[in-house]
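hey m, so remember when u said the tokens were messed up on ur end? i reran from scratch. heres the input so u can diff it against urs
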Amino acid sequence: MTEVSEFTASPRTVIGKSSRRLGSAGQIPAVVYGPNRETSSVAIDRHEFEVWYAQHGSSGVIELTLEGEKKPINVMIRDVQRSAVKGQVLHIDFLAVSMTKPVHAVTSLHLVNDPEGVRAGGVLSVAVYELNIEALPGDLPESIEHDISALEMGDLLLVGDIVVPAGVTLLDDPAGVVASVLAPRSEIEEEVAAELTEPEVIGAAKPE
């Protein structure tokens, strides 16, 4: 279950490119929007946010206290803009959410333990590292783990094989391939070479 964290945001009157000056003051410009509320331009503490974001990513729920409003609101991160040069956060979009209505989110997928096929000499190929899910904000997992120790050589792990926590729905195609255990490249190359060099039987009947 998602842990709800608390932040305080101050109103922001400087917008556009001028808002970048907030960086020198240790703040990040942001906007808060959502159903039944006007978009608010705010600023939050940079250090506090970056420490939290490194632990929770975009799937966490934040109880945001806005100066001038009587009650805090629950928000989720919908977009984080970063500098292409330094990588620091330039701007954040917060979406106001209801804790009683499901939301869509992206969560990281962690495959744990070594597959049987890898222990036998195979190679693990991973195609999916994130999953699209739906759940109540308070039920959103920060990540999903799946044990792949039973995968044999040649086995596929599909999206539909992933077990998710109660209250969470997977939105990705169940037939999508998450990971597979492949034979070592040398074995594959030997099989291909054998097929290419197999002599033709002279006089053999050709298939119609």
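this time it looks ok to me. The two ends are 62 Å apart (CA to CA). if urs says something different then somethings off w ur setup not the seq
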